Amino acid sequence: MIESFLDSALIIDDKEEEVSALLNLLSTNEIFFRYYHPEDLKKRETPLKSTKLIFLDLQIEEDKTTVQNVSIIRSIFKQVIGKEFRSYGIVLWSKHVDEIDELRSRMGNDAESYNLPLFIIGLDKTKYLKAGNFDSLLTDINVVLKENVASNFFIFWSNLIEEGKTNTLRSIYSLVPDYTKLQQDLQYILYKLAKNHTGIPDRIQGYKLEHDAVKAMTNILHYDITHQPVDELSLFTENTIYQYSGSEADRNKIYSSLNSKLFLDLQNIDQAIVFPGNVYKIESDSCFFSVEDSPEGAVKILIEVTPPCDFAVDKKAKRSRVLGGFYVKDFASNSQRDKFNGENFYKELNGLMVDNTEQSYKVRFDFRYFGSISEDDLKDAAQYKIMFRFKEKLFADILQKLSSHTARLGIPFIK
């Protein structure tokens, strides 16, 4: 596993002679590496380039205690790793598990200073020094990785991404048989993929079609990744119930964060571009779609729910279908909760982070506040301020439940 993942390494050690055999091993396996003495890194003023793995000597200064050495390591990382350093893991030269845990624990406080390693595993350097070589190193790393869920999944998943990326690019580029026309024809293919992704009409000016080209390619990549075998990956044991280590409040916070990552697009939005799935904060007190009797502290919102098939054609009237709703931290009572869980409401969203406060909100849309509005009004931030966009799966579910609600006919049955 590690062999296909490891293409670059950083070695931080105060004794180059002790890792010279490691440098030879990396060179023999054509793995790009850089060696640094800790003192050189202390003087460095610019961040290091990203590498996949960092080999790190815990006893970075032999006359210091473990706690002192951990502090020195953290200081170096704050200076040379930074926030732009890509995902990486650490192989720590240490004989003792408690020392590894000490580094993990202290580094956990540095998330604001530099990107934390996705995993830290420990190996005993004296084993290789006694053998006079590091020949078994990659095999030993694989053994340890399989015992560590974080590292096992990260490396396996990273390998899948790389293989899937290669397959996706190969399949798209192969659609151009004449290599001399690659630039022209590939641009055309990407354009058609982008247009197809959301059915964006030509009439919208200023829309970054490049976003949709990336999304379309990512959808193809998703297929190429998820259909690869995962026989080598081992994460779960049958008949085991997994528990979260923290509090219920922290667990619910995780759920809300995951839901937001799955269902909200907070980046690809533009006040000047009205798009199905856009969610707006209602700024006007007189808005027809402002839900009456909303809970105290609720923020009133509306969502653009024009069906994608209608959006894809030129709407001469330039009017959008919208649905009113609100979000609130919590309901004041069970009766209030029940009130907004009735058949008139879209009530699936009971934990979303909709802003930068890391606060979990309950979101409701009232099917009775459904109608049309001018696109020009939606573009006016003084009336409706864009907040985010619901991703395709959630938007489709809202549209389906809205359609079911509005299509209820009822039977005038004599009883």
Describe this structure in words.
With 415 residues, the protein is an alpha/beta fold. It folds into three domains: 2-147, Rossmann fold; 158-226, no CATH class; 248-406, no CATH class. Helices cover 41% and strands 19% of the residues. It contains 15 helices and twelve strands. The strands form two sheets. A seven-stranded antiparallel sheet has the order 6-12-7-8-9-11-10. Strands 2-1-3-4-5 form a five-stranded parallel sheet, sandwiched between helices. β4 (89-93), α5 (97-107) and β5 (119-123) form a beta-alpha-beta unit. The radius of gyration is 28 Å and the shape is elongated. The chain starts with a helix and ends in a 9-residue tail after the last helix.
Task: Please supply descriptive tags for the structure shown above.
single chain; 415 residues; alpha/beta; Rossmann fold; 3 domains; seven-stranded antiparallel beta sheet; five-stranded parallel beta sheet; 19% strand; elongated
